Amino acid sequence: MRFCSASAFSKKPDYGFNTLDLIKKYNVPGPRYTSYPTVPYWREENFSAPLWYRELDAAIKKTDDLEGISLYIHLPFCESLCTFCACNKHITRNHEVEVKYIEYLLKEWQLVRSRMKSSMTISELHLGGGTPTFFSPDNLRLLIQSIMDDIVKPDEACYSFEGHPNSTTPAHLEALFDLGFDRASFGVQDYSEKVQMAINRIQSYRRVAQVTHKARQAGFTSVTHDLIFGLPFQTPESMNETISKTLRIRPDRIAFYSYAHVPWVKGSGQRAYNTSDLPDSHTKRRLYENGKQRLLNAGYIEIGMDHFALPEDRLYKALEATRLHRNFMGYTENHTNILIGLGVSAISDCWTAFSQNAKTVRDYCARLDRDEAPILRGHLLSDEDLTIRRHILNLMCGFETRWHERDLHYRDTILRNLNEFEKDQLVEICSDRVRVTPKGKTFIRNICMAFDLHMMRDEAGTRLYSMTV
Questions:
Q1: How many Cα atoms are found within 13 Å in the side-chain-facing hemisphere of 326?
Q2: What does the pLDDT read at residue 1?
Q3: What is the pLDDT of residues 208-218, one digit of tens each?
Q4: Alpha-carbon distance 217 to 219, whole Å?
Q5: What is the rounded distance in angstroms from the CA atom of residue 168 to the CA atom of residue 134?
Q6: Which end of the chain has the smaller Cβ count within 10 Å, N or C?
Q7: Beta pairing partners, 356
Q8: What's this model's pTM, rounded to 2 decimal places?
């Protein structure tokens, strides 16, 4: 090891021939690291709902009232299936399910709320899915008002929702803004008609522009557009057109995700097209690098992995203030150690333990009907897990992590795993830290895998993941 120099970090990434060789070398299945350990390596045999609540109670006692908690609410219903989607969803056009599902969400919330301080604050709240705007504005108002009945909302809170451009109405926007929401995220994915037909996600540029404008008119201070590269039938030309249309609207944030092709997941709609319909790894990376460069040229700033924000957006300000955090909701601007997930398949995190709810609506509701916590599985983090979790979080949010005395048991193993990355100039290993070079940012998931001791001990599990590049 040596002292780090600044030279490796002053150069622009090289996306030429050498990088294409590196893409071939490192394009392997790997996690996106919204948690560590990742879900396939949870030790469910050592877990139970009482143990989860023990860890949650301890975490709540330590939580500063100003820090508060994060709350994620999973609303799984969609009117149609987007074939690219690997999220937990329930397809129906029957909107009578809304009120009944809300009743179960509130019952689960009372189980959790009874364990919290009377002064507990919710500093971050996110409605995900599924399609949250499947629910009527009145029913969303009922849900949020019931949850916030005795909860404090701090001034710097971030309340956000995911909306389908086709189903998000001015009434949705008005209701959610009145409830304290100030960030909207719209799933755009791609503007090519051929791609939209393949993924069964038909929405016009005009509609996306309109709903973004309406959100800003309603008072939302941050609007995110989700784009995906690597979808069937995408080409550099079509992706370039999608980026051009996105820049015309100029959302405050852009999530530019890699398509995760995992058709072996049970019930996945991804079997609607063939692997041969997808861009090859070389073309897929061009889609991203070309798009990324255009976003940077347009004034967006790269945030962690696959996120971009304008300088005035709070996500960039969180990066500048070293407050950027990553959890099961992705990158967030508020760093809380407690994330409560409500609803079918939702995951909760109290830093020392994870829990996940039942994965079908029927099972989730049946458990609550029996007055049980709807918890299906979970994991209690060991001291090793906590150490590695911190390193991976540092790398994913800041592309750097420092060694500590507690790392001595694992450092030699990790350094051996990083040796090839150092040779390829993707990381710089220093006496007190590991830094990811600008060139290495493309391979951040692979670099984090070098720290993943669970994966190292069980390489057979990698098929569970999408490709890293």
A1: 22
A2: 45
A3: 999 999 999 99
A4: 5
A5: 8
A6: N
A7: 347, 377
A8: 0.93
Residue 464: its pLDDT value, please? Answer: 62
- Taking only the tens place, the pLDDT of each residue in 77-87 is 999 999 988 88
More confident residue, 103 or 155: 103
Q: Which residues of 236-271 are buried (b: 16+ CB within 10 A; e: fewer)?
A: eebbeebbebbbebebbbbbbbbbbbeeeeeebbbe
Cα distance between residue 385 and residue 383, in whole Å: 5
Mean pLDDT of the chain: 91
Q: What is the pLDDT of residue 152?
A: 84
First-to-final CA distance of the chain: 28
> Among 2-11, 42-51, 460-469, which range has the highest average pLDDT?
42-51
List b or e across 127-139, with b for residues whose CB sees 16 or more CB atoms inside 10 angstroms.
Answer: bbbbbbbbbbbeb
Backbone phi and psi for residue 453, each to the nearest 5 degrees, phi listed first: -70, -30
Tens digit of pLDDT for each residue in 291-336? 999 999 999 999 998 999 999 999 999 999 999 999 998 899 988 9
Confidence of residue 402 (pLDDT cuts 50, 70, 90): very high
Q: What percent of the chain has pLDDT over 70?
A: 93
CB 74 within 8 A of CB 130: yes
Mean pLDDT of 172-196: 97
Q: Is 101:130 a contact under the CB 8 Å cutoff?
A: no
311 vs 290: CA distance, rounded Å: 21
Q: Nearest to residue 135, comparing CAs of 107, 108, 162, 106?
A: 162
| DSSP state for residue 270 in the 8-state scheme | G
| DSSP 8-state code for residue 308 | E
Structure tokens at 353: 């333990």
Instruction: Kindly give the interhelix angle for 236-249 and 205-218, rounded to the nearest 10 degrees.
Output: 30
Angle at 375 between CA 99 and CA 50, to 5 degrees: 130
Count other Cβ atoms within 10 Å, centred on residue 401. Answer: 22
Angle (nearest 5°) at CA 220 between 216 and 223 = 80
253 near 222, Cβ under 8 Å? yes
Distance CA 161, CA 131 (A): 9
Structural domains for the chain: 7-36+383-464 (1.10.10.920), 42-380 (3.80.30.20)
Question: Which residues lie across from 309 on neighbouring strands?
Answer: 253, 301
The alpha helices in 298-425, defined as continuous H runs, are 314-320, 361-369, 383-398, 408-423
Question: Cβ neighbours of residue 193 under 8 Å, at least 6 residues apart?
Answer: none
Q: Which two tokens stand for residue 16?
A: 């030429």
Closest Cα partner for 189 from 260, 276, 126? 260
